[in-house]
Each structure stands twice: as C-alpha cells, then as structure tokens.
Design a protein that fits this description.
Layout lengths: L2 H24 L6 H8 L3 H7 L3 H15 L6 H4 L5 H18 L1 H10 L7 H19 L6 H10 L2 H11 L3 H19 L5 E3 L2 E2 L4
Antiparallel strand pairs: 1-2
Helix pairs in contact: 1-2, 1-4, 2-3, 6-8, 6-11, 9-11
C-alpha cells in the first residue's frame, strides 16, 4: 500500500475502534459522529469522508465485532453424538460464552433495534444462530414444539442477561440452571407431546 492508502486505512480503523468502544459504553443512539471523531482524534470532516451515513458505520462496526469474536458455529453441535445430553450442554455453554464476550453490543442491539433500523439485520442474524443451535441440540431427541419454543427462550441473550445481571447468578450457575431446566422441559413435554391440537400448546412443566 502507498503511504496515502495506508494512512487512510489506519484512520478508518481508528474511527471504527472509537465507534465500537462508544457504542459499548453508551449505545448507538446517544453516540454522535462528533464523539467518534474526538475519540479517534480526527476532524469531523474526516469522519464523514469515511462514514457518510449510519449504515456504513454499523456495517464496519459489525464486521469488526465478527473479527474479534466470530459468531459460534452450530456445526459444533451437529458434530456431537445424536443424543441430547452433550448437545444441550454444549449449546448452552457456547451461546452463553458468546453472549458474555459480546454483552455490551448485544445489549445495545436488543434495546436500540427499534430506533436504529440498521441493527435489524444484525439482530436477525443472532436469532438465526440461536435457532440453529436449538435445532441441532433438540431435533435428534424428537423434542416437542413446546419444548423447542421454551428452550429457544431460555437460551436467548435476554434470558442470559436477566439471570446474570438482574438475578445475579454466576456464569456457572446460569449454565447449570438453564441446562437443568431444558432437560426438565424436554423430559416432561416428551416427543410429540408439545401440541395437543389446533391452537392448543401443552405446558412443558
């Protein structure tokens, strides 16, 4: 790269790092371009040369997050034996470990997606990953629709965040409680017992 191109890329990366940090600290809505420029120690006009709109900034920050902490791969569950034992534990541990690493940004995404449309695709991608883990963990066990639905809620970021930050459980306690509860749900609901009839969903408890 030429010196000019190298300087351009270095400046862009400083802006992205500044934005990522500020979004973790205060969210996207209250972070202004001037804040990012100041954190990166560049002029505001320089910021706009690199990121003329919020779409371009969110894409760059999302890509940086993926580079730092790649989303977990459901294939790690598919590679395990078909029984749900190891699969359920691995699913919960893997997803919750990822949530812990990305907590500030995932919290921003969940709370600000209504106000920042650019986050919709990001959060939809997280839901796709979560749902894929649930399928890989429970499908071999023939889990009922009700059990799958409850499990999906239990391994969602918001459930993890509530148990960790509001209830105050440790990481290990959250994993143990959720794994135990999923087993309870699957065991009581039983294969094919999640739906009693049209519009009737059996309680898995």
């Amino acid at each position: 790269m030429t010196k000019r191109a190298l300087h351009h890329e270095e400046t862009r990366q400083r802006l992205v790092e500044a934005a990522v940090s500020l979004h973790a600290e205060r969210g996207i809505v209250t972070t202004k371009p001037a804040d990012i420029a100041a954190r990166a120690n560049v002029a505001l006009t320089t910021y706009y040369k690199h990121f003329p709109n919020l779409d371009s900034l969110v894409r760059a920050c999302t890509e940086r997050g993926r580079q730092r902490n790649p989303p977990p791969d459901p294939a790690t569950i598919a590679a395990l034996p078909p029984g749900p034992g190891a699969r359920v534990s691995m699913m919960v541990e893997t997803l919750f470990r990822y949530y812990a690493l990305r907590e500030p940004w995932l919290f921003t995404g969940r709370t600000e997606v209504r106000f920042v449309p650019q986050l919709q695709q990001v959060m939809a991608g997280l839901a796709v990953t979560r749902d894929a883990f649930v399928r890989e963990a429970l499908t071999p066990a023939g889990a009922s629709p009700g059990a799958v639905a409850v499990t999906t809620a239990l391994v969602d970021f918001w459930a993890w965040h509530t148990l960790r930050r509001e209830v105050g459980l440790t990481e290990d306690e959250v994993v143990r409680v959720v794994v135990t509860t999923i087993w309870r749900v699957v065991e009581i609901a039983g294969p094919g017992q999640g739906v009693d009839g049209p519009g009737q969903v059996a309680s898995p408890f």
